[in-house]
Amino acid sequence: MGRSRMGALPGTANDKMAPYLAPLHAIAKDLGIHPDLIESYPLPYIQGMTFSKAFVILDEAQNLSIEEFRSLVTRLGKDSRLAIIGDCAQDTRGMGGLPVFLRAVNGLPSVGIQVFAAKDNMRHPVIIE
């Protein structure tokens, strides 16, 4: 959620990513997926990578610029899928890339867009009121 004022996190790259991956690992556990099957990469470090035969999840996409979207989408290799998760109303960085990206890909034959409504909320009911 934007830039943190916590300072540098100690430890290895995995240790540093752990606080950000905790929600994903909790969902994976609920789905019966072992967390060791999940690889994570900070977006600035994916340059030069190709994700082949992969299911790539981009979470909190509302905080990306259109250039950051471009850098991720161009990493997709053969037999890969990309799930982008975000809420345009929760852009905490003011980057505005998600609505631009959605307009650019809307209607492409290989792209599906799912918009959820308040009735789809899986959190506490007070959130939708």
Helices and strands in order:
Elements: H1 13-30, E1 55-58, H2 66-73, E2 81-84, H3 97-105
Parallel strand pairs: 1-2
Helix pairs in contact: 2-3
Strand order of the largest sheet: 1-2
> What's the alpha carbon Rg, rounded to whole Å?
16 Å
Helix content: 25-40%
Work out the helix count.
3
- The average pLDDT is 84
> What is the number of strand segments?
2
Order of helices and strands: HEHEH
Pick out the low-confidence regions: none
Largest sheet data? 2 strands, parallel
Structural class estimated from helices and strands: mainly alpha
- Looking at the structure, what is the overall shape? globular
- Note the gap between the termini: 23 Å
Instruction: Bin the strand percentage.
Output: 5-15%
Architecture overview:
The chain has 129 residues and is mainly alpha-helical. The protein is 27% helix and 6% strand. Strands 1-2 form a two-stranded parallel ribbon. Strand 1, helix 2 and strand 2 form a beta-alpha-beta unit. The longest helix is centred in the first third of the chain and has 18 residues.
Keyword list:
129 residues; mainly alpha; two-stranded parallel sheet; globular
Summary?
This protein is mainly alpha-helical. The protein is 27% helix and 6% strand. The model has no long low-confidence stretch (mean pLDDT 84).
